[in-house]
Amino acid sequence: MTDIRLYLSEMKRTVEGWLRQCLPEPEAFSMRLFDAMQYSLFSGGKRLRPILLVSTANLFSGGDGALVRDFACAVECIHTYSLIHDDLPAMDNDDLRRGRPTCHIEFSENLAILAGDALLTLAFELMSRPSAPERRQRQLEALNEVAVKAGCLGMVGGQCADVLASGGDGGEQLVRFIHARKTGALISASIAAGAILAGASDSEVESLCNFGDKIGLAFQITDDLLEIDGDTKTLGKSVGSDVKNNKITYPAVVGIDRARSEAQKTVAESLGFLERFGERAAVLNGIAHFFIDRVN
Questions:
Q1: Residues near 123 by Cβ (< 8 Å), separated by ≥ 6?
Q2: For residue 242, which of 113, 159, 247, 252 is within the disulfide window of CB 3.0 to 4.6 Å?
């Protein structure tokens, strides 16, 4: 049986090695930009999205190792850019992320915006690197999956709904929409990209996307709960910022007890989409449980 926490720790180190290799060499007159990119990219984090991508690829043949590595680094760059921009004064106005000053506090708002822009652009550079002819169709399909779910129909669309909902009334349907897109979409895209790159069938990709949608929702519900009963030192970010910013959250809409129950239920539902893969999906099964058992 896989020790999921040990697996995640080992994979995190592996992914961080890849990330260091994927960054371009800094240029003298824009050195401060590269400093801001590295500051945010290597400020901690669990690397769950790239780990999910690699773990899903390993369900099958594993695919092209270089392509899988590039896509794994790309989804982490996209995630990091989204955190930089999410923390900005125009968004959540947070001053702490992963136990450190946020990028705009450390480097200034203009450099934080540029660092986010650069990381997003680097992600697409990585995903579009030339590959062997027989891999290109899968590469294009995986790239499209990530692009759609990172954009206006996914993560950015969810952020927009979150911004517009701040301070207003919102029901469960709205909060599920926000969570599914702002958080869940990139998690689902990471899983789908790993499956596509490794040659999964359309039916297999669909099952894994459904799994990703469910655990993405469970992850964000758990985040909402940790915002209430977690602590700043453990979380590495300011507790209570959702309340301060009048954010619509799952516990605020349905109550703490039902939110906890919903997170558990959603993970249980997600595991049904893994049944077809049997023991091969043990790692994904373990990660799904980790999503709601974590303390940060």
A1: 73, 74, 75, 77, 78, 81, 146
A2: 247
The pLDDT tens digits of the residues spanning 111-164 come to 999 999 999 999 999 999 999 899 999 999 999 999 999 999 999 999 999 989
Rounded Cα–Cα distance for residues 19 and 180 (Å): 27
pTM over 0.90: yes
Residue type, 20: R
Residue 97 in 3-state DSSP?
strand
Do residues 98 and 236 touch, judged by C-beta distance below 8 A?
yes
Residue 284: HSE in the Cβ half-sphere, 13 Å Cα cutoff: 39
Torsion of CA 22, 25, 26, 28, to 10 degrees: -170
Do 237 and 98 touch, CB atoms closer than 8 A? yes
Longest dimension (CA), the chain: 54
What mean pLDDT, rounded, does the chain reach?
91
Q: Which of 291, 182, 157 is nearest to 226 (CA)?
A: 291
Could you tell me which CATH number the domain at 4-293 has?
A: 1.10.600.10
pLDDT tens, position by position, 153-192: 999 999 999 989 866 567 889 999 999 999 999 999 999 9
| Structure tokens that stand for 233 in this block | 């030192």
Domain limits, the chain: 4-293
Reported for 234-240, long-range contacts at CB under 8 A and 24+ positions apart, including other chains, are 234/295, 234/296, 235/296, 236/44, 236/96, 236/97, 236/98, 236/99, 236/100, 236/296, 237/94, 237/96, 237/97, 237/98, 237/99, 238/94, 238/95, 238/96
> Per residue in 212-257, pLDDT tens?
999 999 999 999 999 887 555 555 555 555 555 567 889 989 999 9
